[in-house]
């Protein structure tokens, strides 16, 4: 697992232990940090393997747009997925690999 995966795992552990302890602006800050990473995946098809897989699975379910327009929307969608309650034993990395449907 790389540093990016470890950071997401640490966030997941913190959220599981005490969701109220996660700072209020964490979702917006995370989306802001994920946007350039997602933009890179959209442009080049390369990046963190779990993120590349998530983008590849999610992109066909979204309306067509260029990378500049799509990246912020996808970052918000990913954050919503990361911050929603999850089943016991499920990992953030596993979540990134799961299919995502807009509006869920």
List keywords for this structure.
disordered C terminus; mainly alpha; 104 residues
Strand-pairing-aware structural class: mainly alpha
Tally of DSSP β-strands: 0
What is the typical, i.e. mean, pLDDT?
A: 75
Helix coverage percent: 55-70%
Note the gap between the termini.
28 Å
β content, as a range?
Answer: under 5%
Task: Describe the protein in words.
Helices cover 64% and strands 0% of the residues. The protein has 104 residues and is mainly α. It is built from 5 helices and no strands. The relative contact order is 0.18. It has one domain (3-17, 24-97). Helix 2 crosses helix 4 (67-83). It has helices at 3-17, 26-44, 49-58, 67-83, 92-97.
List the helices and strands and how they pair.
Elements (H helix, E strand, L loop, with lengths): L2 H15 L8 H19 L4 H10 L8 H17 L8 H6 L7
């Amino acid at each position: 697992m790389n540093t990016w995966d470890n950071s997401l795992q640490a966030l997941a552990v913190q959220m599981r232990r005490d969701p109220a302890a996660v700072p209020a602006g964490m979702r917006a800050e995370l989306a802001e940090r994920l946007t350039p990473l997602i933009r890179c995946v959209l442009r080049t098809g390369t990046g963190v393997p779990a993120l590349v897989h998530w983008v590849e699975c999610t992109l066909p379910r979204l309306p067509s747009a260029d990378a500049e327009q799509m990246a912020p929307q996808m970052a918000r969608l990913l954050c919503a997925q990361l911050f929603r309650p999850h089943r016991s034993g499920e990992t953030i990395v596993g979540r990134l690999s799961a299919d995502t449907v807009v509006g869920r």
